[in-house]
Amino acid sequence: KNQVEQSPQSLIILEGKNCTLQCNYTVSPFSNLRWYKQDTGRGPVSLTIMTFSENTKSNGRYTATLDADTKQSSLHITASQLSDSASYICVVTRYSSASKIIFGSGTRLSIRP
Amino acid sequence: GAGVSQSPSNKVTEKGKDVELRCDPISGHTALYWYRQSLGQGLEFLIYFQGNSAPDKSGLPSDRFSAERTGGSVSTLTIQRTQQEDSAVYLCASSPGRTGVLRWTQYFGPGTRLLVL
Questions:
Q1: Of A66, B26, B69, B73, which has the maximum CB count within 10 A?
Q2: CA-nearest residue of chain A to B5?
């Protein structure tokens, strides 16, 4: 069964600290993996996208990694800011099936001052 | 506009009524998606349009749900005889849909919050 599982469900950290969010997937065949940030009451916004051959991708303070062998991805946030408070969603697309986009349920991150 | 727009932003309706939700994708994007997100839950795929191809309707939860995309641009999601369990945020996304990995990048609208009383 094609699934995307994220952990933790929620996380609270202090401003300025780093954190890492996890994503495990069983989607096959694999096309690409994306991380989205979703602020409360808004639509998701793309942070990174990685294909099978890529194992790391950065976007400012966000760095995503991908291990296609173990089917794991992580999103690392450095020097967190209050504006990083949001849900972070891992999304995996099946190869040659644009409609078969599987969303994880997200990690809700709260940054405290 | 530069982004995906949706209307209305909020909709309150009575059980049994029909509702229409509208999505204006980014100009030039050939792919359009509808998703549903219940409170605290992940996104649930509903339907996908790509160019002039037949839409993928595999995510529609029942025959009360339908969607169309006119002229390859604006899309309307219609829910007939609404039920309380239809209450959710309905999100629309578009993507370039051309070659290259970036064709998968989806740009989401702000969503329509539907409440069925």
A1: A66
A2: A43
